[in-house]
Design goal:
The complex is a heterodimer of chains A (about 400) and B (about 170). Chain A is an alpha+beta fold. Chain A is built from eight helices and 20 strands. Chain A is about 25% helix and about 40% strand. In chain A, strand 12 and strand 13 form a beta hairpin. With about 170 residues, chain B is mostly helical. Chain B folds into two domains: about 80 residues, Rna Polymerase Sigma Factor, Chain: A, CATH 1.10.1740; about 70 residues, Winged helix-like DNA-binding domain superfamily/Winged helix DNA-binding domain (Arc Repressor Mutant, subunit A, Orthogonal Bundle), CATH 1.10.10. Chain B has seven helices and two strands. Classes of the chains: A alpha+beta (about 400), B mainly alpha (about 170).
């Protein structure tokens, strides 16, 4: 019995309980009424057979009419109110690992957008529920993803520009892909074949599937005039001005002492001790940045242990890579964020965390090693044997 | 008596009973569905889908066995569908080397169990269903449930010992 209780305890530790969740019974009823009730199986089967026969006949006789009605359902699903409200989730996700317990949870990149031709295009980006972008554009934005969907989808449905492109199953739902050409860009939108809800959007620049942007649509709804959120809030992590001069950043090959590292960071550097995971501390290496031919600036240090590198900076650089701002916005005390950017920053999965005000990036061959290093991270103390 | 509610649904006694199960047991349904589907959001959707399916198909409930077990079957199936449909999305619950020797290994060990064992564990420990109800949900005999749970516990017991050693 003790063993069974032990299992229950372990399960309780591993899987959250939801005792404070009450559910949404009205939501269940809405789902029920969104599609016709099933009275009995026999009529349904007969109906399915009938529909299939009719469908085959239609396909044989007039294939272009096979999806008649899906565009109308798609129109009805998003409505015609003057304000369009959309929440989409990017397929780039990361994982926050709690350092004390090594438990992890996924973090998602989501964008919430309100579009009102009279008030503008308000986009809030959140990664791990933390805002990393918040901007309002008064003019119509470029028609790529997701803005092309937000500003052009309903118009394309209304104007007949949305063309049926095929069938698929997405997120467990039978969907119909609609192809939409808007502003010189082609978007594909998967809509629920049953109720017309948009489920996923896909944008394939130049037809290159390797760089396609895919987003799941979590919400798409029309709002009445005057509704929606068009107030921009200050960001917790302020974006730095992007350098228009170009620049480069690199790491010196010759190590420096603790004193030099401390001067660059304004505080004692972090390290993993004199040795870590069987690798000795090879030293602190300065990283530098050069902007548009200006003088070199030392911006941080790297503590190196064989394949494990701990890069630390006191400030974000103006040379922000795509995704960098959202990565730092998602970090939180006591956790390391494991993330791999589709833009090659960094090239492989890396760990990101804030410690003592420093921005710390840990790279290693395996995620396990990144988490171990994050747990071992500590400031160099006097008499630690770090040298210099 | 049949009453048309605000949602437009014609309500009958069975809808009321399904609603009662939902309100009394929602947290258990959400926990099991989340465990099966892989995350809370998918679990929440699965509970909604499962109950909606139960309301739509309520006339298929013939009174053989508890209503709750019949609903569990709908929710479990919805959660399994969600899990399958998530396979094309880079969810982060995939086993990886980070977890190979960590407390999260229990979760990984459960994920590695045969599906029937995994579902039986969730239904037993998260929903507190008895063997008869679990049998109804999984479509197997009660005796098979006992054997399934035993095999699952044996497999997990080994993992728990290893985790305990790791945590020392």
């Amino acid at each position: 019995m003790a063993e069974v209780d032990e299992l229950r305890t372990a399960l309780d530790r591993e899987y959250p309980s939801y005792d404070d969740h009450a559910g949404d019974w009205d939501g269940v009823l809405r789902l029920v009424t969104a599609s016709p009730p099933r009275r009995s199986r026999l009529p349904l089967r007969l109906a399915v057979v009938g529909v299939a026969v009719v469908g085959i006949l239609v396909l044989l006789v007039a294939p272009w009419k096979a999806d008649t009605g899906i565009v109308e359902r798609a129109q009805a699903a998003v409505g015609k109110g003057p304000v369009f409200h959309v929440v989409i989730r990017s397929q780039s996700s990361g994982r926050l690992v709690e350092l004390a317990t090594r438990r992890s949870r996924p973090v998602y990149d989501e964008q919430e957008i309100w579009w009102d031709p009279a008030r503008g295009f308000h986009l809030v980006g959140r990664f791990g529920a933390r805002r990393y972008a918040d901007g309002l554009s008064r003019s119509r934005p470029r028609p790529d993803v997701p803005s092309g969907f937000v500003t052009g989808y309903r118009e394309a449905l209304d104007s007949g520009q949305a063309k049926v492109a095929g069938k698929d199953v997405v997120r467990g739902k039978k969907v119909t892909w609609l192809e939409i050409r808007t502003g010189g860009v082609t978007l594909e939108v998967a809509v629920d074949s049953e109720n017309g809800d948009p489920v996923r959007i896909r944008y394939t620049p130049g037809g290159n599937a390797a760089v396609a942007e895919v987003h799941d649509v979590l919400r798409a709804e029309s709002l009445p005039a005057g509704a929606g959120d068009f107030d921009v809030q200050p960001l917790p992590t302020r974006p730095l001005p992007l350098s228009g001069l170009g620049g480069s950043a690199s790491r010196e090959s010759r190590g420096v002492g603790v004193g030099v590292a401390q001067k660059i960071l304004g505080q004692p550097p972090l390290w993993l001790g004199r040795e870590h995971a069987g690798f000795p501390h090879e030293g602190f290496f300065r990283t530098w940045v050069q902007l548009g031919g200006r003088a070199l600036r030392y911006t941080g240090v790297v503590a190196s242990y064989g394949p494990v590198a701990v890069s630390e900076r006191a400030r974000l650089l103006p040379i922000l890579r795509p995704d960098e701002l959202k990565v730092w916005a998602a970090t939180r005390p006591g956790f390391v964020l494991l993330y791999r950017s589709r833009f090659g920053f960094p090239r492989a999965t890396a760990g990101f965390l804030r410690r003592n005000g420093l921005y710390v990036t840990i790279t290693a061959a395996k995620e396990r090693a990144i988490v171990s290093a994050a747990r071992a991270l500590r400031p160099v103390s006097a008499g630690s044997g770090a040298g210099g | 008596m049949v009453v048309k509610g605000v949602s437009g649904l014609k309500r009958d006694r069975l809808v009321d009973e399904i609603e009662a199960v939902y309100r009394q047991r929602y947290s258990s349904f959400l926990r099991v569905a989340s465990a099966i589907a892989g995350d809370e959001e998918a679990g929440r959707d699965a509970v909604q889908d499962g109950f909606a399916g139960a309301v739509r198909g309520r006339h298929g409930y013939k009174g053989r066995g508890p209503l709750e077990a019949w609903i569990w079957k709908a929710v479990v199936n919805a959660a399994r569908d969600r899990r399958r449909s998530a396979s094309d999305v880079p969810l982060t619950e995939e086993p990886d080397e980070t977890r190979s020797d960590e407390p999260g290994q229990l979760r990984a060990a459960i994920a590695a169990l045969p599906e029937r064992q995994r579902l039986a564990i969730f239904l037993r420990y998260f929903a507190d269903l008895d063997q008869r109800s679990i049998a109804k949900v999984l479509g197997i005999r009660p005796g098979t449930v006992a054997a399934t749970l035993h095999a699952a516990r044996e497999s997990l017991r080994k993992t728990l010992k290893e985790v305990e050693a790791w945590q020392r």
